[in-house]
Amino acid sequence: MESFLQGDVCQDLREISVVNLIVSIVIVIGMLISYLPQHVRIISRGTSEGISPYFVLLGTTSATSAFANILLLPKSRQDIACCKEVETFHCVAGLLGIAQLGVQWICFTFIFVLFLVFFRYNAVDDPDHEAALIEEQPRWQTALLVASLTLLHGLAVIIVTGILSTIAHDKLAIWANVLGVMAALLAAVQYIPQIWTTYHLKHVGSLSIPMMCIQTPGGFVFAGSLFARLGWAGWSSWGIFVLTATMQGLLLSMAIYYEIQRRKEFGDQMPGRSTSHPEHYANNQEQLQASMDRQDRDAAAETSPLLKSGGNGNSRPN
Q: I want to staple 272 with a disulfide (CB 3.0 to 4.6 A). Which of 21, 111, 193, 314 is the partner?
């Protein structure tokens, strides 16, 4: 009887929708591609300047909660269990929704790693820029706090899930919804610190505009894909991406505006040539002086001032 019921609930996996399958595959591939510009931009610039540490914290913990949420939803656990009853192809096709959130979690976690690796905490001392440095440059203590809270959150999710799976298996559905609400709340405020940082700096820094151009419309498509798979019962999963895409769209609009303004004012010059805070990117006093001398020469050759408060900073080409 149990085998019959198992086969009955697994019938959905055997009945594959070609359209949903194609859309799910495109989303997984598109998600991988969408994050690459952000990874490449941080690595190529050699700095995570312009990216809010709290944006990284909220984004990583939100992605962790979302991935754990979809893993623990009754429908997902049922589909995973059905992989013992159906063919490998049907199993893989049926779990693509879970794979999508897994890929998103891996990609954002890599941003978290890059943020820490390329965090600039050893700016050259320069009395003339000390006040601006204190105001705008995140301190190493902030990066350490972000790393600690992110790791603690991930550890807590694993421990609680393990305990409930062992002694209170019937509570997993409640815990899944708690994680879903947590992910939605974190996603709802995730872009607020980044929007504030971008507004304050008046430039995008190491934030990738191409990534946002792909992800903003992709977020709504992704939400629609999850809705088709989970229905209204999965609101705690697909609702996250409706919120995220909306907030990201606002940030994208700001980023494009500031980039257009920068190009109007500085033309085709790289942002690093007009930085108002070269001390953030010099490793010694000689590099700082060389950067400032170059800016003086560039400013003298232009009809409009190049040194503008809030300008981007990177002495290397983008």
A: 314
Residues 187, 172: Cα–Cα separation, whole Å: 22
Q: Could you give the CA distance from residue 161 to residue 69 in angstroms, rounded to a whole number?
A: 10
Q: CA 81 to CA 278: how far, in whole Å?
A: 56
Q: Are 124 and 283 in contact (CB under 8 A)?
A: yes
Residue 23: CB atoms within 10 Å: 17
Contact predicate 123/287, CB 8 Å = no
Place of tokens 């893993």: 71
Mean pLDDT per 10-residue section of the chain, whose length is 318 residues = 52 74 84 92 90 94 92 85 82 84 93 90 48 58 92 95 89 89 87 91 88 87 76 73 85 90 66 48 55 55 39 43
Give dist(CA 281, CA 124) in Å, integer. Answer: 8
Question: What's the full length of the chain, in residues?
Answer: 318
Provide the 3-class DSSP secondary structure of residue 277.
coil
Q: How far apart are CA 199 and CA 196, in angstroms?
A: 5
Indicate the pTM of the whole model.
Answer: 0.73
Cα–Cα distance, 118 to 249 (Å, whole number): 26
For residue 294, CA distances in Å to 54, 95, 183, 289 come to: 33, 55, 46, 9
What distance in Å separates the CA atoms of residue 95 and residue 102, rounded to the nearest whole number? Answer: 11
Residue 5, exposed/middle/buried by CB under 10 A (0-12, 13-18, 19+)?
Answer: exposed
Tokens (6 digits) for 96? 């693509």
Residues 6+ away with beta carbon under 8 Å from 91: 13, 82, 83
Give residues with Cβ within 8 angstroms of 44, minimum separation 6: 316, 318
